[in-house]
Amino acid sequence: MSDSEASQPDQAPAGPLLLLGDSLTEAGPWAEAFPDQEVVNAGVAGDTTADVAERLDDVIALQPGTVVLMAGTNESRRATVEQVVRGLEDILFRLRHELPDARLVVCSVLPRERERADWIREVNIHVRQFAPTVKAEFLDLWPAFAEEDGELRPELTTDRLHLTDAGYAAWAEELRAQLA
Q1: How many whole angstroms separate alpha carbon 48 and alpha carbon 105?
Q2: Environment class of residue 18 by beta-carbon count within 10 Å: exposed (0-12), middle (13-18) or buried (19+)?
Q3: Which of 72, 102, 118, 145 is least enclosed by beta carbons within 10 angstroms?
Q4: Residue 8: per-residue pLDDT
Q5: Can you list the alpha helix ranges (DSSP code H) found in the chain?
Q6: Are 52 and 88 in contact (CB under 8 A)?
Q7: Could you tell me the end-to-end alpha-carbon distance of the chain, in angstroms, rounded to an integer?
Q8: How many whole angstroms separate alpha carbon 89 and alpha carbon 33?
Q9: What is the share, in percent, of the chain residues with pLDDT greater than 90?
Q10: What's the CA gap between 101 and 117, in Å, rounded?
Q11: Is the pLDDT of residue 12 over 70?
């Protein structure tokens, strides 16, 4: 193996840090949270896993070094657990296939209203189990964001869905620790 083929395990992959998802991602202050990195915010309000999958050509063209995926919450009223899990698996599989050297981090679906907690927990269990099969990391945000009953912590949201500045600060802190 030549020196150019050797890689250092502690070296971050070349390319930008790309955050991929829906409005939760889109509204995030990611450039401010990661000032020492080139950051691309590829969040689009209202996106489902199918919408995210349709945008993957654009994501892949950017050749990100790290992709952070957060999707699935927009489907919690109209899709089954299996449909959302399959959507996330398909996205991760394609990203791994098309970006073999990229670091992939899939974030757990955040808690929302307590009425959706069981559905979200079930999605997260399946995604956590699948992630290693495509060499993706699973970032479990549930402990930092959920009340005991599965409700999104009130100090992190105003509407039990979208995040406040404190919510984004908590997410950024968890993500910085994961990427360190």
Answers
A1: 18
A2: buried
A3: 118
A4: 36
A5: 23-26, 30-33, 49-54, 56-61, 81-98, 117-130, 142-145, 165-179
A6: no
A7: 28
A8: 27
A9: 86
A10: 34
A11: no
Label residues 52-71 b or e (16+ Cβ within 10 Å = b): bbeebeebbeeebbbbbbbb
Query: Checking DSSP bridges between strand 39-43 and strand 17-21, what pairing results, if any?
Result: parallel
64-122 residue pLDDT tens: 999 999 999 988 778 999 999 999 999 999 999 999 999 999 999 999 999 999 999 99
Task: Give kind and range of the element (H or E) at residue 41.
Answer: strand 39-43
Q: How many of the other CB atoms lie within 10 Å of CB of 120?
A: 24
41 strand-pairing partners? 19
- DSSP, collapsed to helix, strand or coil, labels residue 48 as coil
Q: What is the mean pLDDT of the chain?
A: 92
Residue with tokens 């959920």: 146
The amino acid sitting at 163 is L
Can you tell me the distance from the alpha carbon of 92 to that of 53, in angstroms, rounded to the nearest whole number? 9
Residue 1 has pLDDT above 90, yes or no: no
3-class state of residue 125 by DSSP: helix
